[in-house]
Specification:
Number of strands: 9
Radius of gyration: 20 Å
Number of helices: 8
CATH topology of the largest domain: Ribulose 1,5 Bisphosphate Carboxylase/Oxygenase
Helix content: 25-40%
CATH class of the largest domain: Alpha Beta
């Protein structure tokens, strides 16, 4: 059995794992109790009413958070269009290239959080799948990283576009901001995510789609949200 620290015991004593709590109360608690010497992220877990064993019910996509995620995302771009390389860098790309970029990735000389590619560059990028796939970096049209307008895609990612995908238990895990955000900013980011998930609901999914929403901070505890305090779920 894992031994809990005094800090974690104190946090868990404040909330019951069997109860749901008002969203703004939970956000305020997470912010008040943050005592770590770095700015924690605020994470959300959304339990979906899907059968994750069936591919047609898996939920995957992307959403632009209105207040960003608070992360400094490193972006690499594959494109053959030399005319827009400068524009892509201005938009926020950290690396832009083709064969030279592929060679650096093969030699493990580059570290990125997101890779964006034009459709014309995908035959080359596809050859890097054994490297990029296990790291979750393969561009995909469903998460907006394969795009005809890569300048716009890079801008959106820098502004706070995040990708989501359910795990094998049918749960979405994403970061919706930093503990330093205002409560309203975190609420609006969470609402944007919920709206995106509802729009992406598989037609095969029956019954309650959004079953449970849990909010946590990097070093905090997960607290279940009372769905009545997040009306966007039922609207």
């Amino acid at each position: 059995m894992i031994k809990l620290s005094k800090r974690m015991k104190h946090l868990r004593s404040r909330f019951s794992s069997l109860s749901d709590y008002d969203l703004m109360t939970v956000i305020g608690f997470q912010q008040k109790m943050s005592s770590i010497n770095f700015v924690e992220s605020v994470d959300v877990a959304v339990n979906l009413g899907i059968d994750a064993r069936k591919s047609e019910q898996n939920v995957r996509g992307f959403v632009l958070l209105p207040h960003g995620s608070g992360r400094n995302v490193r972006i690499a771009v594959f494109t053959q269009d030399v005319d827009i390389e400068h524009r892509v860098k201005i938009a926020g790309a950290d690396e832009v290239g083709m064969f030279d970029l592929a060679d650096r990735i093969k030699n493990k000389n580059c570290q990125f959080d997101v890779i964006v590619a034009s459709p014309a560059a995908m035959p080359l990028v596809g050859k890097l799948a054994p490297i990029l796939g296990p790291r979750g970096l393969m561009p995909n049209i469903r998460n907006g990283t394969i795009s005809q307008n890569i300048v716009e895609s890079v801008k959106n990612i820098k502004m706070g576009q995040i990708c989501y995908r359910n795990d094998k238990s049918g749960i979405i895990h994403v970061t919706i901001g930093k503990i330093s955000f205002t409560p309203e900013q975190l609420r609006e980011n969470l609402e944007a995510l919920i709206i995106a998930l509802k729009k992406n609901k598989p037609i095969q999914s029956k019954g309650v789609f959004i079953k449970k929403v849990t909010l946590s901070s990097t070093m905090g505890i997960g607290i279940a949200i009372d769905k009545s305090s997040l009306p966007i779920i039922t609207n």
